[in-house]
């Protein structure tokens, strides 16, 4: 049983308590503390985040016809919706919808007619690791996120003023206690005006050398003391996030600027530093078929990882090719998020999205933390 994690213990507790179909009696014996002391188990597995998402850009298809709003505005009450069913690390499933509405202003006086906000309503379920078809809903990821009109910041704690805090609310199941934990901090999304965007140089270590890519028009999405709520199990702890995820308007690529995840697990402080890129690749016939995908190449703690023994494979690459190359010698998240977009002219009005992301030497906590942050940024990362 060496290496068995607290996550496995929590799911086992649900099974043994009758919340999910029962395990044999021998498997329900309490797990000695000494067997939890080895640290989080590292996972190397394909499709570690997998599933589908349907996006309906209602703000692009339902326009104001009243004449009361600024010209070109969406209709009052029109929303974008992101409906998904995603499995994370095999034993956790998230299904539900995030909706987003924009700020709307009157045509003559410019008075605000509608506040911008996101609303989350997501069911969280755990699965029986011995039979993934058996699962139990354990709570919800729910609440409101106001979007500041002047800065564009997503105020993750702002829903509290509306008595709708963004939170993970987990029910008591078997011996696992109920808890509620809130998200906090601010996510500053892509800029509304692009004139002031500046160039930025991104660097990373590949095959024993440092390579760089210069982005001429970098639009940062900044994480200001973002706090990820714990859950859906207590083994996924409250985590503080800082750093940036920058968008390149010329290529459609995303670049990380050392995103830091800090948390405590088993009485030990952990900090994961994520570097790398998410590259946009368009189908040659995208204008007619609407297809394209994001190629993920995110590395976790690459500066402290064992350097690749295959450095010769990167020596002859250009800096740009080496920057996007995958190095399996370091912990990483790779794979694709694929889009089939419905196009009206050059405007995307709906998307069918398929997730197929892979883990290389990652812990469940690292995978879950990234997933939570990505879902918090669901608007900026899916809009063109």
Comma- or semicolon-separated keywords:
17-stranded antiparallel beta sheet; two-stranded antiparallel ribbon; 19 strands; 384 residues; disordered N terminus; globular; mainly beta
Topology:
Blueprint: H1 6-16, E1 42-57, H2 58-61, E2 80-88, E3 92-101, E4 104-105, E5 112-114, E6 117-128, E7 131-146, E8 153-155, E9 167-170, E10 179-182, E11 184-188, E12 198-206, E13 209-228, E14 239-248, E15 254-265, E16 268-282, H3 286-289, E17 291-300, H4 312-315, H5 319-324, E18 332-344, E19 347-363, H6 364-376
Description:
This protein is mainly beta. The protein has one domain (6-376). The protein has 6 helices and 19 strands. The chain has a 17-stranded antiparallel sheet that branches. The radius of gyration is 22 Å and the shape is globular. The relative contact order is 0.15. Residues 1-19 and 21-37 have low confidence and may be disordered.
Helix content: 10-25%
Number of helices: 6
- Category from helices, strands and their pairing: mainly beta
User: What integer value in Å does the Rg equal?
Assistant: 22 Å
What's a concise summary of this model?
The protein has six helices and 19 strands. It is mainly beta.
